[in-house]
Amino acid sequence: MRDLWPWKLELRGTPSRAMTYLSPVLAIVMTMLLGALLFIALGKDPLAGLKVFLIDPFNGKRAISELLLKSVPLILCALGLAVCFRANVWNIGAEGQFTVGALFAGATLVLIDVPGHATPGSLGLVLMIIAGILGGAFWASITALLRDRFNANEILVSLMLTYVAQLLLMYAVNGPLKDPNGMNFPQSKVFSSEFMLPMLMSGTRLHIGFAVTLVLAAVMTVFMTRSLRGFSLFVGGTAPHAARYAGFSSRSALWVSLLISGSFAGLAGAFEIAGPIGQLLPSVSPGYGFAAIIVAFIGRLHPVGAVLGGLVMSLLYLGGELAQSRLGLPSAITGVFQGMLLFLLLASDTLIDYRLRRKAKV
Amino acid sequence: MTSTIPRLEIAHIRKAYPGVLANDDINLRVAPGEIHAVLGENGAGKSTLMKIIFGTVKPDAGEIFWNGEQVHIANPHVARKLGIAMVFQHFSLFDTLTVAENIALGLASDVSMPELVTQIRQTGEKYGLELEPHRHVHTLSVGERQRVEIVRALLTNPQLLILDEPTSVLTPQAVDKLFVTLRKLAAEGCSILYISHKLDEIRALCHSATVMRNGKVTGNCDPRNETSAGLSRMMIGDELVRLQRERNPDSQRSERKLHINRLNLLKAHLFATELHNIECEVRAGEIVGIAGVSGNGQQELLAALSGEDQRAAPNMLMLAGRAAGHLAPNPRRALGLGLVPEERLGRGAVPAMTLAANMLLSHQKPPFVKRGMIDFAYARSAAAAIIERFKVKASGPDALAKSLSGGNLQKFIVGRELERKPSVFIVAQPTWGVDVGAAAQIHAEILALKKEGCAVLIISEELDELFALCDRLHVIAKGRLSPSIAIEQATREQVGLWMSGLWQQDGQEATHA
């Protein structure tokens, strides 16, 4: 009986560094294999299906630019979440912080972008981006405050605030921010192009927000691996007593990590408004804030990893869209792939602390 | 004893971990009713062997016989069914559960909670291990947690009881009481495996001993016929240097470096101990000890000294002449404080971080940190220097803190705190669970520190240690601190009495004298 499966899991002496980085790769490969099985089960050619997911998003300059564009909000949200998770602050409300960031940014432009305004485009753009950052940080600070003052669970609070944020956005686009000439659609006016982000590549929608994201990833790498503040967050997250002994305040860890995370999510929201969307819509986010949780973990809670993870997740989004149009698969396919990826990643992470060993012959 | 069937016999046990051979061809026999010592330095492989017997670690090779029959102990559940109970050195208790709930989890049978509470109280009374069954474990001190473990083990009516360093946190009276208990258990037929490095205790208690070094058995003996020096020679290969304590004649007139000035602190949580009027001073070049059974306010006092608890009024704590009761840990470090906490893993060091990174817990000033940025190269070299100077057994500055044995991690933490050249050095349980070799080394470092003019305060539950090191001794009991007594005038009996809080009558005169 026991020898049907000749392998066993054995605790490693020390966690494997190699597996820490190989585990996400393994998870991605397994996701694709299971994806192929899924295509077969749905009666599609698995190779054609995988081609749509893996090859087609790289097909040409336009496709690649779309891939990079879509990775921006994912990477930004994941950069902030990685800080939170390392500090053991379980902010899962990046989606809400993203939404409020977009709302604040959009509202700022609705105020500025009126006929006959005298605001220079670049100033308006900067103002709307600052408003987006403040919006995201403000939304995250509600979670921090409730946890700090009343010891409310930050998982529940941040998650619930996501729905509040969405309702707030619905109210805004149905009420005060609605385009008066918009045929009563629940959306703001389309903002003037002078307030939009400059393009990075001509003939595409890829804006300079992508470059900003890469710079921020570099800054966060330094913050998390070199700065005392980043170190203190990590200590507070893994050993709270040691943090107290060291003199690192757990309150400041809570506030700093949530404010950073909220700011990044808010910035991502502002970039979407000032980039590909160009107006305020009820559907500013197809779940970027939630997908970013997976991105943060694929990226090993490291900023460089968040960039790579964000590109993979972007691939899944675009592949899912292409699968809908080319293979006639339902839109849920993106979510299925995201779920498989997270599940397989958590499973693969077992191999960081354990190794597979052949059972000894009895 | 060879005529009877041994209660437990293990033969040719072998266990290898990546990089180390923890157990190499180990043989051991324990007769019914025998108290058998397993002696060895940290890292000798004692704990691994006990875990194999208790089923938490699987041996690579070897056989185990229980009452003459070969058994396969796959997990602790099997071990408990056989009648083996174990008290771990690192406690396996859930912080958020109460004493009674923790004990209920370890028991196989279904006992109703009120019944269990009665049993806990009875066992506690019978063996001098008093416990409040409804307290949460996170509020207990180390010594009290150990009591929970021992009571839990005793409630299973074991045939073999394994005790890993059990006496390190008990008063001399309590140790005597525990020995009475253990002898009684042995007389009732229960075998006992007693892991310790305290040679006197082993000679007083045990019928036989197995000595281990580097994963191998290096000797078998009857400890009652051996001298402590002989035992320690078997254990570490050479004799220990006896400490030479020098009385610093100038210490009475030297500068007062640490003054705890009528410190009063209310409870921070329901089960904390209130501190009342704590009065204590330590002068440069002096070592002052605070004895006491754990749970009498040591944790609270230490938190108030380290800066983890900043509720005290500023002048209740004077550090180098400055009011410091309200300061955070880092400003206190700037005033010259070095502090080694009681818990090594989780407070004194972050388990999952490297030794180099752990330097930063108490070194956040240049050259370790400049303009908010960490110089990891410097931290690594500083950690490497400590590893070298204190002979810490670790693979290097990149070794994770949790990969070190208790004694080696303690040497590292002590080294880290000495690195800042403190003028006030506070250390709690400096040698708790630390092997003889490391303990001697730490003691020597503390004495050297005194010679350099540092003011040292030791909070310890080991009287041997306090008598060996201190110039003056206080006793803490129920959140109050006794007046100090010069070590030459102190007796173990008197200190033992003071531990129960019985100094108040004659104490008043002593303070005014």
Task: Write out key terms for the chains shown.
heterodimer; A: 362 residues; mainly alpha; ABC transporter involved in vitamin B12 uptake, BtuC; 2 domains; two-stranded antiparallel sheet; globular; B: 513 residues; alpha/beta; Rossmann fold; seven-stranded mixed beta sheet; six-stranded mixed beta sheet; 23 strands; disordered C terminus
Q: In words, what does this structure look like?
A:
The complex is a heterodimer of chains A (362) and B (513). With 362 residues, chain A is mainly alpha-helical. Chain A is 69% helix and 3% strand. Chain A is built from 14 helices and 2 strands. In chain A, helix 1 packs across helix 2 and helix 5 runs antiparallel to helix 10. Chain B is built from 17 helices and 23 strands. Chain B has 513 residues and is an alpha/beta fold. In chain B, strands 13, 16, 19, 20, 21, 22 and 23 form a 7-stranded mixed beta sheet that branches. A 6-stranded mixed beta sheet of chain B has the order 6-7-8-3-9-10, with helices on both faces. Chain B has a 4-stranded antiparallel beta sheet with strand order 2-1-4-5, covered by helices on one side. The longest helix of chain B is centred in the middle third of the chain and has 16 residues. In chain B, helix 14 links the parallel strand 19 and strand 20. Chain B has 3 domains: 229 residues, P-loop containing nucleotide triphosphate hydrolases (Rossmann fold, 3-Layer(aba) Sandwich), CATH 3.40.50.300; 189 residues, P-loop containing nucleotide triphosphate hydrolases (Rossmann fold, 3-Layer(aba) Sandwich), CATH 3.40.50.300; 65 residues, no CATH class.
